[in-house]
Amino acid sequence: SKLPDVMDVPYLLAIQLDSYREFLQAGASKDQFRDVGLHAAFKSVFPIISYSGNAALEYVGYRLGEPAFDVKECVLRGVTFAVPLRVKVRLIIFDKESSNKAIKDIKEQEVYMGEIPLMTENGTFVINGTERVIVSQLHRSPGVFFDHDRGKTHSSGKLLYSARIIPYRGSWLDFEFDPKDCVFVRIDRRRKLPASVLLRALGYSTEEVLNTFYTTNVFHVSGEKLSLELVPQRLRGEVAVMDIHDETGKVIVEQGRRITARHINQL
Length: 267
Hints:
- By secondary structure, the protein is an alpha+beta fold.
- It has 3 domains: about 15-130, no CATH class; about 145-215, Alpha-Beta Complex (Dna-directed Rna Polymerase Ii 140kd Polypeptide, Chain: B, domain 3), CATH 3.90.1110.10; about 220-265, no CATH class.
- The protein is about 20% helix and about 30% strand.
- It contains 6 helices and 15 strands.
- The chain has helices spanning about 15-25, 35-45, 70-75, 195-200, 205-215, 260-265; strands at about 50, 55-65, 80-95, 105-115, 125, 130, 145-150, 160-165, 175, 185, 195, 220, 225-230, 245, 250-255.
- A 5-stranded antiparallel β-sheet has the order 7-8-9-10-11. The protein has a 4-stranded antiparallel β-sheet with strand order 1-2-3-4.
- The longest helix has 11 residues, at about 15-25.
- The model has no long low-confidence stretch (mean pLDDT about 85).
- GO terms for molecular function: DNA binding; DNA-directed RNA polymerase activity; ribonucleoside binding.
- It comes from Pseudomonas putida.
- One of its GO terms (biological process) is DNA-templated transcription.
- InterPro entries: DNA-dir_RNA_pol_su2 (IPR015712), RNA_pol_bsu_protrusion (IPR007644), RNA_pol_Rpb2_2_sf (IPR037034).
């Protein structure tokens, strides 16, 4: 005998298929897009405002093309089952001479952004001809990471230190020392530049850069006399080349003695 079915078995792949279909919103027009998935990701990035504020790039919508091959042919050819993604953007140019940011020109253009994989009817992806259920991707946690080369780069065995800044979104920044203790920066692991170039691009002046990395001495000119402003903290650990007196004339540090933290507090 055969027991009757108590309940219908649900189509378990529907969860994955419906979720990815909602992510792409394929077939929907820009007026029908809901604020989810790929559409929400683009909206979170745009608009992009130029540094001068005279131009803005806005997101209008996107559309998915048709796949070049079907699933079986992608497996045979060893290619990815994907469709082209084209995004329509709007460039707005503002009048520089206008005080209320009057619009000078508007241009719209469709930009090819790349290929996006499609999910098959079985809830899988075809990547380079191989059918996969899960497409893994290594994602580094955002933050600041410090490291050194363990002395393997330079013949002297000197440790060359480096720092990497990984943001939540955007370009990676790598700061590194060379054997001459000069600091360089790489943007997205490309050609290295002096770190001062990046600081200047961020708006720092030459004086601000020097004051950040170097200690400065302040001199006072009075007639033909030139006096140096004393910073006691810099004298710690130095040997006094002469007797150092306080305002009352009392000797605090004798000549030839090493200046300690106690002496600095008295100064």
